[in-house]
Amino acid sequence: MTGSVETKLASLGIILNPPRTPIANYVPFVRTGNLLTVSGQVCYAADGSLIAKGKLGAGVSLEQGTAAARGCALNMLAQVKAAIGDLDNVVRVVRLGGFINSAPDFLEGPKVMNGASDLMVEVFGEKGRHARTTVGVAALPSDAAVEVEGLFEVL
After folding, report:
1. Cβ atoms 65, 56 nearer than 8 A
2. How far apart, in Å, are the Cα atoms of 47 and each of 17, 44, 61, 100, 112?
3. Is CATH 3.30.1330.40 the classification given to domain 4-12+27-154?
4. Torsions phi, psi of 136, nearest 5?
5. pTM for the whole thing?
6. Which of 37, 103, 135, 136 has its CA 20 to 30 A from that of 60?
């Protein structure tokens, strides 16, 4: 039987892609006790292409960046599901950390990260509200526009 979070995803027209394999010497997630840390997820689409490539404020629009952050969050949910089996076992989204590939004068990183934050609230309701950090960076793997990491309390 499908859980309530999976039902919510389906009602939003969302199908989670299989979780991606790490591209370097790290694991996609670590669980210790009831905390699950998910490594940074880049904005890959289902076909392996980047949702947005390049720098926000220098070729990548705010709207493209927001869509990329949402894509990162979807990739993170795929990792959470792989880690705990059932997204209904998420007690709380504790924290998201966002890395925005930014031109030096781009100051809208928090608006970009709303793509990820809004998805968590859409999917999990109040337990999707979280603490957050957003940082503009000079470069990301594969010249991705956005990368998002997360911390979850789980059963």
Report:
1. yes
2. 9, 8, 22, 22, 22
3. yes
4. -80, 135
5. 0.97
6. 37
